[in-house]
Amino acid sequence: MDEPYYVGFRIGDQELGLDPHGHSHGMTPYWEVDDIKSSVQALLDAGAEAVQEVKDVGGGTLIASVKDQNGNIIGLRQSS
Q: What pLDDT score was predicted for residue 24?
């Protein structure tokens, strides 16, 4: 995908999200959450560290990522 920002494709009730710069963050797929801010905070409270703060990637879709205690990157996404 040659885009400067997140791109999402909806197939039925599922959305495939692509971050063209995700590889530089060791990115894995985004997990859909209802409340991204509280989800990020819960992961931080459990010992994760912030990799990417919550940001709007267009159309009100929010993404963020954290690294868990084992070094795994967890991507989170909240639909608008």
A: 66
Q: Which domain holds residue 66?
A: 7-78
Q: If you average pLDDT over residues 34-39, what whole number do you get?
A: 97
CA distance 56 to 29: 17
Looking at residue 3, its pLDDT comes to 57
When divided into structural domains, the chain yields a total of: 1
CA distance 74 to 80: 20
Q: On the CB side of 54, how many CA atoms lie within 13 Å of its CA?
A: 15
Instruction: Report yes or no on 44 lying in a domain.
Output: yes
Q: pTM of this prediction?
A: 0.70
**Is pLDDT above 60 for 58?**
yes
Residue 2 inside a domain? The answer is no
Let me know: does 54 contact 10? Beta carbons within 8 Å. no
> CATH number of the domain that 27 lies in?
3.10.180.10
